[in-house]
């Protein structure tokens, strides 16, 4: 048995691996071969009830646990994860279809997040407030919500488990996690390590199931106190509507249409490999993927030629081959991306490279479309595939306009050697995150995964994320004379 094995046909409720109440199972498929890897329990409403009830029973004792002890337990979990990096990397890579090196990177990131919040558990404080007289005292206390529902997608399951579960636990909440039915194996492996670390029964529960069954049951459950959702904007709106019925707070991490804004003075030798990686990593199946390239007109032809050559050289293959790119995760995702490719041609975008399936699994060639208009679907909608839409601009004003011409507001990446221009664009970007001369947040500890507009509202995994899982209590005291 592998070192992170967990029982098949089961899910994790109240500290135990158990079958679904009705015995239902889900097939988990390798995207490269389209063959079934294993089966897990298919949770329904009754299973969600069991998980929420277990979390509710565990909450009082877990919330009352010394926060330093909570942090120490979370760190034991992190230590077990780092000891099993290779096994966990293989689980995530095969389940999602990403190269083994990509799975390894995700496990290192997940470990870093969990370790970060292990250290933060006993650093959560309130504030003492000024008073109008020495006869009064005012202060605040951050308190856990209670039972937190966490619903995550299939693209980076280990990272998203860490980014949502670790701060919730550190703040004193208990958790019911529903991973995607497409790729639940890494979350199950992580919770098995949490079990070995010694978390009390009911503190962490993991149930996989279909959205209309387990997902709806969890996010509309009357005994859930807080909801965290990562996924599509449409589903996010539906979850907000369900949460409104129970007046439950929600944090949403939704879609993106992130631009790389490339000026003529940028270091192209640095920028172009990063731009290509931003749309081919995990086959473009990332919410922050750099799916739009806005390039200054004077270097447009050179950049498109170099980007297209680099994209055409990307090697695709199954996870164990550990090449540059794997397949799309499922038949549904393959059909969705294929539909965008057809629409881009129909709407008049110029295909530079790619634009077709390849191989036997759900593989799509890395694709570049040039001469893209702002009203084309390929420029407006989240594709979640290795498809890059190129537009050109003349000056900073036009670049700013194009950068913000999207309903999403997750990440904007600016490539320039002009510091003043970079600072102006960072200020004007209507997105929760801005990167300059890099893609995303490399090198920054505790960087907040912020978002704006249709990308949602969340600070997932960042330095203030612990606050998202607490509610503030204000205390005002009048000091009586003795």
UniProtKB/TrEMBL annotation:
The active site is at 253. Transmembrane segments: none annotated. The keyword Oxidoreductase applies. InterPro entries: Ald_DH/histidinol_DH (IPR016161), Ald_DH_C (IPR016163), Ald_DH_CS_GLU (IPR029510), Ald_DH_N (IPR016162), Aldehyde_DH_dom (IPR015590). Pfam families: Aldedh. PROSITE patterns: ALDEHYDE_DEHYDR_GLU. Keywords: Oxidoreductase. Belongs to the aldehyde dehydrogenase family. This is Aldehyde dehydrogenase domain-containing protein. It comes from Streptomyces qaidamensis.
């Amino acid at each position: 048995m592998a070192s992170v094995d967990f029982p098949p046909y089961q899910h994790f409720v109240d500290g135990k691996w158990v079958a679904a109440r009705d015995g239902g199972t889900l097939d988990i498929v390798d995207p490269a071969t389209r063959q079934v890897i294993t089966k897990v329990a298919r949770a329904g409403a009754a299973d969600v009830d069991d998980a929420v009830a277990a979390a509710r029973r565990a909450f009082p004792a877990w919330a009352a646990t010394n926060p330093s002890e909570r942090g120490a337990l979370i760190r034991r979990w992190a230590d077990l994860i780092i000891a099993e990096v290779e096994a966990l990397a293989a689980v995530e890579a095969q389940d999602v279809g990403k190269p083994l090196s990509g799975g390894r990177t995700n496990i290192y990131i997940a470990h870093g997040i969990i370790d970060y919040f292990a250290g933060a558990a006993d650093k959560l404080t309130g504030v003492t407030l000024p008073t109008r007289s020495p006869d009064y005292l005012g202060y605040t206390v951050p308190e856990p919500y209670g039972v937190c529902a966490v619903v995550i997608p299939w693209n980076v399951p280990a990272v998203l488990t860490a980014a949502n579960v670790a701060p919730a636990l550190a703040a004193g909440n208990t958790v019911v996690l529903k991973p995607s039915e497409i790729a639940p194996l890494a979350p199950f492996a992580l919770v098995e390590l949490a079990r070995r670390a010694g978390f009390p029964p009911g503190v962490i529960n993991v149930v996989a199931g279909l959205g209309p069954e387990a997902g709806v049951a969890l996010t509309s459950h009357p005994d859930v106190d807080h909801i965290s959702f990562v996924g599509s904007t449409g589903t996010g709106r539906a979850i907000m509507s369900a949460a409104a019925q129970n007046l439950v707070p929600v944090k949403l991490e939704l879609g993106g249409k992130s631009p790389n804004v490339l000026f003529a003075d940028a270091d192209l030798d640095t920028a172009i490999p990063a731009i290509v990686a931003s749309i081919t990593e995990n086959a473009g199946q990332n919410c922050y993927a750099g799916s739009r390239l806005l390039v200054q007109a004077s270097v447009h032809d050179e950049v498109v030629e170099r980007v297209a050559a680099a994209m055409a050289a990307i090697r695709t293959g199954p996870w164990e081959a550990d090449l540059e790119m794997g397949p799309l995760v499922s038949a549904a995702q393959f059909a969705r991306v294929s539909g965008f490719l057809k629409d881009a041609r129909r709407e008049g975008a110029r295909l530079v490279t790619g634009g077709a399936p390849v191989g036997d699994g759900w593989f799509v060639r890395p694709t570049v479309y040039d001469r893209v208009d702002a009203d084309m679907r390929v420029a407006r909608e989240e594709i979640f595939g290795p498809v890059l839409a190129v537009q050109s601009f003349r000056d900073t004003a036009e670049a700013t306009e194009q950068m913000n011409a999207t309903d999403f507001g997750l990440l904007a990446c600016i490539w320039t050697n002009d510091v003043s221009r970079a600072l102006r664009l960072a200020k004007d970007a209507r997105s929760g995150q801005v990167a300059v001369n890099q893609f995303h947040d490399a090198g920054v500890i505790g960087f907040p995964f912020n978002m704006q507009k249709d990308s949602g509202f969340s600070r997932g995994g960042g330095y203030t994320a612990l606050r998202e899982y607490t509610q503030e209590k204000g205390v005002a005291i009048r000091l009586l004379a003795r």
